[in-house]
Amino acid sequence: MPFNQKPQKFNATINTVEIGCGEKAIKLGGESVFPFYTFDGPIDNAPKVGVEISDLGLGDAVPGLKEFYGDAATPAEMAKKAEAMEGADFICLRLEGGDPNGENKSVEELVAVAKEVADAVTCPLVVEGCKNVEKDADLLAKVADALQGKNVLLLSAREENYKAVGAAAGLAYNQKVGAESAVDINLAKQLNVVTTQLGVKAESIVMNVGTAAAGYGYEYVVSTMDRIKAAALSQDDAMLQMPIITPVADETWNVKESMASEDDMPEWGSKEERGIAMEIMTASADLAAGSNAVILKHPQSVATISKMIKELV
Amino acid sequence: MAKFITIGERIHCISPAIREAMATRNPEAILKRAKEQLEAGATYLDVNIGPAENDGEDLMKWAVQLLQENFDNVPLALDTANKKAIEAGISVYNRAKGKPIVNSADAGDRMSYIDLAAANDAIVIALCSNGPIAADNDERMVHCQTMLEHGMMLGMEPTDLWFDPLFVVVKGMQDKQMEVLEAIKMFSDMGLNSTGGLSNNSNGMPKHIRPIMDSAMVAMCMMQGLTSAIVNPCDVRLMETIKSCDVFKNNTLYADSYLEL
């Protein structure tokens, strides 16, 4: 009997969210099929790859990263280099120096960094806070104000501060809101519900449903993303039809496979190669599970993942 | 699994306000009841214009257009004994949000309503009866098979026949309640859709009791595989029960605000 292909059709679509302005603006989502299921229907907006930079510079980054950024001294100079990285679609600026338990930089100082970076590049920009919910409520609201007209995505509104971040980014200053839940599917939906109840348009929300590095309880990430896409498409759940963005580098460069020195673990081989491998493995799995965008650090990872996407979509 | 489908029953010519509105083509009362039901979470709205022997076609067209224009092409169940009126309603019906439902056929005199649905690519509610309530489930399932085969002969998808076991009143037919529930399970095991006026179970009970009985009934029915019901969506307890059962059945993903959705 000949094989008759029956495409899986859904009467539902992932929302399309545009980030950035002008020619380099990107669109996340818009598909009515499961990740990479191009045999079922078109994926007009292929998943996107972002490059993470930090207001703290490179710190003790691996040699390949230091070499790539060379003499770039400021975040704005780094952003210019990151923008030109092979395979990069957008930049993610992390304002981790704002952490009250770290350098505790002032909101004003960080807003100025964000502004310099935004002015230095033409590609779309994602701005991530310092992960302290009180500080981020203030910081991300002020960044949203300062970058008006740039159509940036702010990461993230969380359960504790979605009102402040959502109202500033999504209502007052017309930016895009990232809704963050830490691999908790019910909270992911709930955050979308309450953020839209604030008045933020569903089409202005991108979800960061969290990730783990490959090998660190990763199957829970897969089941979370799988269930979200299934609810969005097969159950037409409007509160889960937001595209997903996943900051990968932040997880993968902080696990022992990426951090252990070659002196301690000679049998594990090159530390830099291990870090790249962790980043690529996790990002490819996130994309296969449903992420519409991933955020990476290493140029080799960015190039590899970007090539993978191009070959699959 | 798809979410449970509620068909709002409150646009019914048995209500004096609705009868008056239909007779005078006054939109106000109809739009008000439609709005209430949709805000309460109804998916479909039933439009019962009664026998409508004189001006049924004109009335049904008017009602379909009125409701769909005001409520983003809300899907409708067209409910009347006047077949020409149903056809007239379908002729102006917009399918963007779902096929029209023909309410209703049975395995007796009303078999030809299945033909009407087949000819118009509509869903049909198929009462498992040929007039009187079926004596037992053997008889119910014979009616079900008869109508299913008739619809399929006419080219219908089996899932476009929504079988109604006919809910019976507790006060008088208490010993038949489990049979109705078992019939739903049989429909479900055959992969068929089902619906019905389940609040019939509580007919004649005090007003404050009915939502309790109806909620218990809908929960037991959903466990058995009922896929839809014709209900009063303004019954908060009932709708909360349906939404909660949809969570248990994994038809919808839980979030703390699930009752507000």
From TrEMBL, chain A:
Protein name: Acetyl-CoA decarbonylase/synthase delta subunit
CO dehydrogenase/acetyl-CoA synthase delta subunit TIM barrel domain residues: 17-247
Source organism superkingdom: Bacteria
Organism, scientific name: Lactonifactor longoviformis DSM 17459
Gene3D superfamilies linked: Dihydropteroate synthase-like (3.20.20.20)
Automatic annotation (TrEMBL), chain B:
Keywords: Methyltransferase, Transferase
Annotated Gene Ontology cellular component terms: cytosol
Molecular functions per Gene Ontology: methionine synthase activity
InterPro entries attached to this UniProt entry: Dihydropteroate_synth-like_sf (IPR011005), Met_Synthase/Corrinoid (IPR050554), Pterin-binding_dom (IPR000489)
Domain Pterin-binding: 4-249
Organism superkingdom: Bacteria
Methyltransferase keyword on record: yes
GO biological process assignments: methylation; pteridine-containing compound metabolic process
UniProt keyword annotation of Disulfide bond present: no
SUPFAM superfamilies: Dihydropteroate synthetase-like
Signal peptide location: none
One Pfam family named in its UniProt record: Pterin_bind
Family statement drawn from the similarity comment of this UniProt entry: Belongs to the vitamin-B12 dependent methionine synthase family.
PANTHER family: METHIONINE SYNTHASE
Protein name per UniProt: Methyltetrahydrofolate--corrinoid iron-sulfur protein Co-methyltransferase
Organism per entry: Lactonifactor longoviformis DSM 17459
